[in-house]
Amino acid sequence: MTNWDAKARAQFSRxxxxxxxxxxxxxxxxxxxxxDALRTSALLYKSFEVANLGPEMGALTNAIxxxxxxxxxxxxxxWGDTGPSWEFYFYDYERGDRKYGIADFLxxxxxxxxxxxxxxxxxxxFMFSVExxxxxxxxxxxxxxxxxxxxPGSTVSSGICYGLTNDGYEMRNFYFSSTRxxxxxxxxxxxxxxxxxxxxx
Length: 201
Prior knowledge:
By secondary structure, the chain is an alpha+beta fold.
């Protein structure tokens, strides 16, 4: 992958593409995609190009897609004090009978990422996430993987995030989601996400 062209990797959206939100829940599209609409992955690939990390991040995301398939990963782009980063979220609501876990991610990406953390895939988490910074592409090990556990007794869809580091698990924050919208004509989304940060180190 000595040559990188984000435009060449971009693909047009297809009518058969799954309509899934940021929780990988299906939703009804408010309108069909235009004939020239691109899949959202085009934006992700373009961000790699802008960060001058196209070949490295392209190889990493290829490894993820080969293991998980299409439309099975949620991603987000960030910009912080140290520059760009990308966070990838992996859902599996089967929990104890999940198809893929953190160990599968580490196995799929072992040629691209280093990690000395020891995850416990017997924990009933419904999602985990990994934030990739440029330094991780140069051999610096991943120092944190987040898991998201269900919130017992909650009347809405919610979760508790724990960060796995070399020191073990630490609670980081709560997440709350609702599948109902009080004003559907105003909000064209089937979920509202609210993140409450308990503390920041």
